[in-house]
């Protein structure tokens, strides 16, 4: 009788709620055996989840497939796609397949807050596995949905681009932070970092202006922003001696660098002494001059992952 089948399904739910997944499977499969093709989609959902919790991902996928074949619009929620994504991640599903489940699941939610919360589950999934391009795509959706995205969301988007070697897009995200959060160092710092990686030929186009903006920002507190201060003055010192051929400006920034970087002060003083012995120079026309000094060895033009600002640092703003 249908009433007895319903009782079996309720029993399966109670077993699942108690995390007795073996019991849940036995009872729910009894329902499938009794109802056959008339089995309701929610029974397949329960079986998919119970098998997933048991670590039997093959059967989890089997019943997830059944659910999606027979699902009905009145009983179909975003978490169905979350479970599907989790199952696919265990059986070698592609990042594209998993990404699609997170985007389709978000579409089922009715409020912006719920859509954002669901998408962030996908963001966390891809971040943990360092699949940066998919993390960035979901973060783009989060930022588009939210009326007022916060600095952490822009930072995460920027950092996903950065890790995926999309430095122009990373810099664009950093520029938004720099414009909207003028009291925070992160936009200034990361616009400069990405500009250095982009602007390797004509350094005065974006890297030098970004270095100067970072330098100006750090004047607020050169102790608190010591690392960023040193990075900016070191870069500007190298630029003025090697590219701009401006001896006086080079000495100005080499001196600032030496005063802030006590660990390397002796080495930096050696650069200063060499520059002082050199004949006076006038800034030449743009694009001329290729002479390099030892300071060029200190260039930040190569990407380094050893001084990354972490998410936790942003959260403490």
Q: Could you walk me through the main structural features you see in this protein, from its secondary elements to its overall organization?
A:
The chain is an all-alpha fold. The chain has 16 helices and no strands. The radius of gyration is 29 Å and the shape is rod-shaped. The relative contact order is 0.05.
Overall average residue pLDDT: 88
Kindly state the percentage of residues in helix: 55-70%
> Count of helices?
16
User: First CA to last CA: what distance?
Assistant: 62 Å
Radius of gyration: 29 Å
Q: Which shape, going by the Cα principal axes?
A: rod-shaped
Low-confidence blocks of residues: 287-317
Order of helices and strands: HHHHHHHHHHHHHHHH
Find the structural class using helix and strand composition.
Answer: mainly alpha
Percent in strands = under 5%
Major sheet attributes? none
DSSP, total strands = 0
Oligomer: single chain
Structural key phrases:
mainly alpha, 317 residues, 69% helix, disordered C terminus, 16 helices
